[in-house]
Amino acid sequence: MSKLANDTRVFKINPAIDVQNVRFNNRYGFNLAGHLYLPLNFDDQQTYAAIVISGPFGAVKEQSSGLYAQTLAEQGFVTLAFDQSTTGESSGPVRNVASPDIFVEDFSAAVDFVGLQTFVDRDRIGAIGICGLGSHVLTAASVDIRIKAVATSVMYDMAESMWQGLNHSKTAQQRTAEKQLLAQQRWSDAENGHPAAGLHELPFDENNQPIQADQLFDETLPADADPVTTEFFNYYRGRAFHPRSVNSATAWTATTPLSYYNFPLQAHIDQISPRPVLIVTGEKAHSRYMAEDAYNRLKDHKELVIVPGATHTDLYDQLNLIPFDKFTSFFKTNL
């Protein structure tokens, strides 16, 4: 644990909140990088409730998860924002490989870390997953009963989205073409001795063939970009650009969808009950139906909050829309 240096966070920083640079291992041996936020008037002789936070999928701790962590530290929690394995400053000899199993494990490893701190009460640890990490955090909480309360913000089921497409739009023909492309990509990666970068959610051309690219976003937004692409571009390439963010500067490995095809997330989220779950999404979020689907599969105790007028990325960083009062009351009540 060391004082944060070379600060590259992309949101407005509260200098009154002490932030420590930390490292911890998951059970697969990946070394995870995190920022540990200490609450106002921190006293290391006291014990605090803690919240571990990650996401969005392809973001880094200097982006949205750090903003959530800082804001909740202002409310009296010890919080940990961390980079998923193979991304950001976390380890991994092959960079930017997404794995449902490993990313779920990363949340439990974060619980390990905060629970080892003498100033954290192990019986008062919660978790938040933002965007695509929302489906991972619910999966983690399904079996890791140390997570006493769990929340998601604009949750996105990455496995469902990759397999079925947004709004379940992917056809069987498209999925077959996609698998053929990924099979050829594996041959290319094996022949070249290293994995290529590529899109984890493939668009299709007018002939129903998948389109591949080695970067999620170009430097400029295409004139014919759809609203969802525009929204993501404005966040990752615009107001919250970070050079270590997969979504800002590069792409996942091209074969990333294979593991999500095989291993769906959220299989046992009904088992979180009776521990409480808070599902937050935006009224205008393109991902809203995923949050509502997850909510419907959960058992009590659960709560769904739909933020009026909010889009998906609004709940990444727009302080006038993110319901931090709701997150605060949820965790203060349940931790």
From TrEMBL:
AB hydrolase-1 domain location: 71-315
Pfam families named in the record: Abhydrolase_6
Transmembrane segments: none
Origin superkingdom: Bacteria
Protein name (Swiss-Prot/TrEMBL): Membrane protein
Organism the protein comes from: Lactiplantibacillus fabifermentans T30PCM01
Taxonomic lineage of the native organism: Bacteria, Bacillati, Bacillota, Bacilli, Lactobacillales
